[in-house]
Design a protein that fits this description.
The complex is a heterodimer of chains A (391) and B (330). Chain A has 391 residues and is α/β, with parallel strands linked by helices. Chain A has 10 helices and 12 strands. In chain A, strand 6, helix 6 and strand 7 form a beta-alpha-beta unit. The radius of gyration of chain B is 20 Å and the shape is globular. Classes of the chains: A alpha/beta (391), B mainly beta (330).
């Protein structure tokens, strides 16, 4: 009832021409790496930023009925720039909520700098588990999924398919090993057996060259030859060095999953379930390119702020964030059910989409995985296992 | 004995030996098939498919004209509303609906058609006699449900991502009020006496009973089905009987129709239908309710008095909505 009164008051203030309530949302970002095995996967320069900009448009259209306006203040962080300086500059401009599309190290620097002026960070890109565990922060809300959620989403499907014996191939970089760790944990959790683990060492030069295909065609079978009986080849290659070359080149005829083949994610340009076509259309009309998972994560983060301002009827940061962390908060993000926040690590609960590069193969959690509170909590680190102590 | 039996036989012959206990007038049912790009025609007398009409791309919202002579179907990907001649089952014209029309409603006088343009955050107003667009109103993101008040003075339009119902004054063609609802509001339906407006929230999961004069929420009806997780209950379509005594809410992936008491708003019953039930329509005599099950490619027939599902009829690909022409046999 209070909310209805607030809405009526807001509408009459629109009609009277009162000054609108302005909500400024910050967007701190670094250009994503363009290193990809497939040309089709090379991200646009505005990847992520575009998603945030579309969400500001969507928030603004809603806001017009409530006498609220929204503005996105974005700052690209160069490699050597000081994140704390950017955070302070945003605070000086009245920004209370910052959506960040940054790696884990810079995200933490932003979060720590944000504490001083009571700013809150929405993590739209970093999948590192440690950000939700030992490095969790009370002023960081995770919209991006964790590696654990991605690995769990994939593993549940592999379990459903009864592809329980894995040949795991891991890249030689740190982030590859982090993804491999998540996959191994998921295998234990859901009963898959890793029959063998192999490393693909990045010695440079493995990617596209004029004669690349001939070499890769010989390398991949060799890499996967002679392993114990397995049902699927699971690749952990976030660094984009070899996994894209595995499908149809494994020694035994086996499906590929993980960083190539069947890939877990939060969005793809072919996703058309639950009204998603409407968002895909709006995005394509504005940016003339397909919408990526990072775009969707940034969109969702900015929409969370918009949803909070509408329901809480306020532009005040503490009120908005209090609402987002509260029991009534949810956001509709074309995932077929409302998305809510885990109170133990501030991770947004969400389904995980399994994509084969052209079509959605499945959406996890898979049917049959039960949970006392929400089936979405079968993906990722659940409350009893959490090491996070929010401050 | 013999005499009585022969009288009995004669009665049976006169009645035509129909399987249905009461012989209702034959109504013509039109079902839009979103992926099939067609409209399936069903006869309520035989409860069989009698024809398929090829339409433009992505047919969704479907309504008949008041005299039953025309069927209007919104073909979203072709950015128009097609006019089908009910006698010939052919597309005979188009209405300038604006882009990506989904749902639409015709006012009680049959003069104007109001269509939601899902991609553009607009509501388009079309004069049916001249087939001209006469106005547009800017609404919230992803406008969806459209309903005209029984007195013809207000048009309600819901917007899915903005989560509001907008009240638009028909004369001024301006929004005169907004009501925030549960997440992702879909369809809206007025009681015939104008005393209540029922609006479904697909992601919010409830049915909001609105006082349309005060433009305030009176009550939010929640649904609970034993053994089914709450997230699967996603109310989309809603229909009300003319006397306002019964309402039917279609619960999407819960695969059920909720029967709601019009006065107490209590949920009386859940009827199991096909997969992903979205929209439906009552026959003019309100004997049957036919609902479209998008993922099982069929419609379910519900006996309204008995509150039972009696039949499923296979239609086209991904049935979305149902419209039933008034008047008797065709």
């Amino acid at each position: 009832m209070v909310l209805v009164a607030a809405l009526a008051i807001a509408w009459s203030s629109v009609c009277r021409g009162d000054a609108p309530l302005e909500i400024k949302i910050g967007y701190l970002w670094a250009k994503p790496s363009k290193v990809r095995i497939s040309l089709l996967d090379v991200p646009a320069d505005n990847e992520g930023l575009a998603g945030a900009q579309l969400a500001i448009d969507d928030n603004t259209t809603t806001g017009q009925f409530l006498n609220q306006t929204f503005a996105l203040l974005d700052r690209e962080l160069q490699q050597d720039a000081d994140p704390a300086e950017a955070v302070k500059a945003l605070a000086d401009q009245g920004v209370g909520v910052i959506v960040a599309s940054l790696d884990a190290a810079r995200l933490l620097a932003v979060a720590d700098a944000a504490k001083a002026r009571g700013q809150v960070v929405l993590n739209a890109a970093a999948t590192d588990e440690r950000l939700r565990e030992e490095d969790c922060r009370g002023n960081v809300i995770h919209v991006a999924p964790s590696r654990t959620m991605l690995a769990d989403g994939l593993t549940q499907y592999l379990a459903w398919k009864k592809w329980g014996r894995w040949l795991l191939v891991v890249g030689s970089h740190d982030r590859d090993k982090l993804f491999a760790d998540a996959l191994k944990q998921s295998a234990t959790k859901f009963g898959a057996k890793i029959v063998a683990e192999r490393e693909f060492k990045d010695t440079g030069g493995a990617r596209r060259t004029d004669s690349g295909v001939v070499e890769v065609q010989r390398q991949m079978p060799l890499l996967t030859q002679g392993a114990p009986e397995h049902d699927v080849v699971v690749a952990a290659d976030e660094s984009e060095v070899f996994a894209g070359y595995l499908p149809f080149r494994t020694f035994e005829p086996r499906p590929v999953a993980g960083s190539a083949g069947l890939v877990p994610g939060t969005w793809n340009a072919a996703f058309d379930q639950w009204g998603a076509v409407q968002l895909q259309n709006r995005f394509a009309a504005k940016f003339h390119r397909p919408m990526s998972a990072l775009d969707m994560q940034a969109w969702t983060a900015v929409r969370m702020v918009g949803e909070a301002s509408v329901r809480a009827g306020s532009a005040d940061t503490a009120t908005l964030v209090g609402y987002i962390k509260g029991p009534d908060f949810s956001v509709a993000a074309f995932k077929g059910q409302k998305l809510t926040l885990r109170d133990w690590d501030l991770q947004l609960r969400q389904p995980i989409i399994l994509f084969d590069g052209r079509n959605t193969v499945s959406v996890s959690p898979q049917e049959g995985y039960l949970h006392q509170y929400s089936t979405l909590d079968t993906l990722g680190t659940d409350r009893p296992s959490s090491k996070c102590k929010l401050n | 004995m013999k005499g009585l039996r022969s009288i009995g036989l004669a009665c049976l012959i006169l009645v035509g030996g129909r399987a249905w206990p009461e012989s209702a007038s034959a109504y013509t049912v039109y079902v839009s098939n979103e992926k099939g790009n067609s409209v399936t025609v069903v006869d309520t007398d035989t409860m069989k498919v009698t024809g398929v009409i090829k339409t433009g791309q992505r047919p969704r919202g479907i309504e008949t004209s008041q005299d039953g002579k025309f069927v209007y179907v919104a073909v979203g990907d072709d950015d128009t509303i097609e006019i089908i001649d009910a006698a010939t089952l052919k597309v005979v014209g188009k209405l300038p609906s604006g882009e990506d029309p989904e749902q639409f409603a015709i006012d009680p006088a049959g003069k104007y058609l109001y269509a939601s343009n899902e991609n553009d955050a607009k509501l388009t107003i079309i004069d049916l006699a001249t087939r001209q667009r006469v106005g547009q109103v800017a609404v919230g993101i992803e406008p969806e449900g459209v309903a005209v008040s029984p007195d013809g003075r207000i048009v309600v339009c819901t917007s899915e991502t903005t989560s509001m119902a907008h009240f638009i004054d028909v004369e001024q063609r301006k929004i005169v009020g907004n009501l925030l609802l549960g997440a992702r509001p879909r369809s809206a339906a007025f009681k015939a006496d104008g005393s209540e407006l029922w609006v479904t929230s697909e992601v919010g999961g409830g049915l909001t009973i609105v006082d349309p004069v005060a433009r305030k929420t009176k009550q939010v009806v929640k649904f609970a089905i034993p053994g089914l997780r709450a997230e699967a209950i996603q109310p989309v379509g809603v229909n009300l009987t003319r006397d306002g005594k019964l309402g039917f809410v279609y619960l999407g992936p819960a695969n059920r129709v909720a029967v709601v008491d019009g006065a107490s708003h209590e949920v009386l019953k859940y009827l199991l239908v096909g997969q992903r039930v979205w929209h439906g329509a009552l026959t003019p005599d309100e004997k049957y309710l036919l609902v479209a099950n998008g993922l099982s490619n069929d419609i379910s027939v519900i006996d309204v008095a008995a509150q039972k599902v009696t039949k499923s009829i296979q239609v086209g690909e991904m049935p979305w909505g149902v419209a039933i022409a008034p008047g008797g046999d065709h």
